[in-house]
Predict the 3D structure of the following.
Amino acid sequence: MPDSRRPQRQPSGPRRPHPPAGDAPEPPSAERAVQDRRGPRQKVRAFLSLGSNLGDRRAYLAEAVTRLPDVVAVSRVYETDPVGGPPGQGAYLNCIVELHTDLTPRELLMAAQATEAAANRIRLERWGPRTLDVDVLLVGDEEVDEADLTVPHPRMWTRGFVLVPLGDLAPELVIGRLTSEQARGVRPAGEL
Ligand code: ADP
Ligand code: MG
């Protein structure tokens, strides 16, 4: 598939109408999404990670897969003890979905957050327990570095619970990056 992987690089710096430097407020996400979309885009391969450690974890993951747009593949499910965050939270179930999509990274963030909201996620504390966490990992080879959106996801290459399921769908992205240390503690937990 020579061309589908080609970058559809979105201008993220100079060509975007940025407010002047200073404390000008960021425009809301939906407005930014409109700014980001400049005409038709080619479809690219994108990956989102899903995690749940509260309630019926498997049902939250399954529901998310049905809600997210343009899903073409789902990894196996893995159970992982929580990394960081407050003590005493339960283990996570994680999986990765692959999308074939022309949505922008920001549109995917909005879809991710709408899917979290549908799972009644309550943001009590960062890295605290959650019914559903959806992160945008990769969108073709686009790069975004903004206050509320970084793609590729900045922590994805250090997280076994991301790299192991990603290896189910895109082993070529994981080879040489996943250490045995990272893979330890990521336990197969069947399929959705
Ligand atoms: P985490 O996923 O790190 O456990 P949250 O889900 O609470 O924590 O996300 C915190 C913020 O991370 C969100 O408000 C979102 O705007 C921001 N964010 C930045 N880049 C991404 C990304 N690639 N995917 C998802 N959220 C992101
Ligand atoms: Mg998140």
Summary: The beta strands are 44-52, 71-74, 78-80, 92-101, 133-139, 144-146, 149-151, 186-188. Residues 50 and 134 are 5 Å apart (CA to CA). The mean pLDDT is 86.
